[in-house]
Write a structure and sequence with these properties.
homodimer, alpha/beta, Metallo-beta-lactamase, Chain A
């Protein structure tokens, strides 16, 4: 089948749903077995032009579980094999890079990332489990489209962002700078375009320009309101401080793309505190009424 | 209930069963849905004196999935909470430390490890996600028992080992040195003793001395034969080269503890290639006839 295949491997933000140590309202519903909240693993998608060779975008800590749940990504010939031919990273957050540690065992693939993200991998020797003689590390340059060799074109673009949490120490943390710290990806094949932006600190004109005309936009759905975490008493950090745009309120994403032609829009990288995770909630109804979908693990799109 | 509670969170070696890219005979049975092979996550156990406060031994990459499968380890009060109060590490292998990256989100606990293993964590800034103001790092000294503060005494002891794979680069890899690289743990409470040795390159007199009299010995069951991986054409590495004793053959574990009084013996850290993973296999029957159990995920021991 030609087109552009997109599999949602994980739809949650860092920590997943439920988060291991959390009893926020959403996690609490899950822990007591309320069927309105389903389990979600940490965000990652797989994209393919032919349904055979796949590009992962981000490698979540849950990648082993995600592959076991996804027959498309399981080995099918020889004694060692994987349909995963490449992994592209949108930043160096733990929930996007830790899964690389699972993709060891001498399997050949290519890791695409910005120079800055590659430097972070290089400064952590644990990533040497991906032996350089089998795993190629390739630098993505902003706004320079490249051919992945598996029928997919990728165009990376910088978005307003923030350094990874584990790199914050001792730094003056700047939010919203447009550097290679946080990027979005356009992935295209067979005249179809996916735009993937799981983390974004502000919706500027470049973000809107890239989203315009996409057949599918998967966008940062971390929190519903900017002060969601502080209000729940879980953290003093707003969505903005974490490098994310809230869905609603000033600078929110809900209405920010409404004037553009976009085939389908859906939220991904959804934090466990976000009430859109509760089936039937007012907040879920509100985003659906605004023509946004809410991704769930295992969802498939054929564009 | 007093005694010593032991939960098998994961029973497999690095990669788990099935391994993401593997079609060895055992993994192949799993991929085609043969019920004789069950899924196993990467090795980790939880130990408790009271069934309420828990020590994890090793933090596997599958720890989020393991906690979701284990009600004992789920949060039960306040907005953030975990029954996991400490994590002890037996070496710095990826399958034993990567799970620390999942145990973030500002949860307070103590990481116990040797000085050498702490140095490896410190040399990888990604582990800074465990903020030093909430996660304490405590050095374990060999043969020095210590009180964990949750009713468990722990005595670490060096065993013949090998540096972690990702630290091998550019080094002359020495196998079987008795250093702080690889350790076993005795965990005791209420007059009961668990001895946990998930990786061991040779069974010397010290290993036998520590195992002697244990109520439960959980021991390295990586491979059945020393040449298992080379014979399958999967790797040129023997069990010995990977820092493990095979179950059978010269230096094998199957008969090495037979003359000691040990309450129960079971294999853990079982590689996906090991035929004891197939229910009813000749090899499974052979280990069971020699009075060894084969751990599976979710197994509980109350000593």
């Amino acid at each position: 089948m030609s087109g552009l295949h997109v599999l949602i491997l994980g739809s949650a933000a860092g920590g997943g749903v439920p988060q291991w140590n959390c009893r926020c309202p959403v996690c609490s519903l899950f822990w007591v077995g309320d069927s309105r909240v389903e389990s979600r693993t940490q965000s990652s998608i797989a994209v393919s032009a032919d349904g055979v060779r796949w590009l992962l975008v981000n490698a979540s800590p849950d990648i082993r579980q995600q592959i076991l749940a996804t027959p498309f990504l399981q080995p099918s010939n020889g004694s060692r094999h994987s349909p995963v031919e490449a992994v592209a990273l949108t930043n160096a957050d733990v929930d996007h890079i830790a899964g690389l540690l699972v993709l060891r065992e001498r399997q050949s693939f290519t890791v695409y990332a910005t120079g800055q993200t590659h430097d972070i991998l290089a400064s952590n020797p644990i990533f040497n489990v991906l032996s350089p003689d089998v795993v190629k590390r390739s630098v993505m340059n902003m706004d320079a489209p490249f051919d992945t060799g598996i029928g997919l074109m990728v165009r990376p673009f910088a978005v307003p962002g923030k350094v990874a949490l584990f790199m914050e120490q001792g730094q003056d943390v700047r939010i919203g700078d447009v550097t290679e710290t946080t990027i979005g990806l356009e992935v295209s094949a067979n005249s179809k375009r996916l735009v993937y932006i799981p983390g974004c600190a502000a919706i500027d004109e470049k973000v809107r320009l890239m989203a315009s005309g996409a057949d599918l936009l998967l966008y940062d759905g971390t929190t519903f309101t900017d002060d969601e975490m502080p209000k729940l008493g879980l953290s003093d950090k707003t969505a903005h401080r974490m490098g994310h745009t809230p869905i609603t309120g000033t600078g929110g994403s809900l209405g920010a793309f409404g004037d553009l032609f976009i085939g389908q829009k859906a939220y991904i990288h959804i934090n466990n505190t976000n009430p859109i995770l509760i089936d039937g909630s007012t907040e879920r109804q509100m985003v659906e009424a605004a023509d946004w979908g809410v991704t769930r693990d295992g969802m498939k799109f054929l564009l």
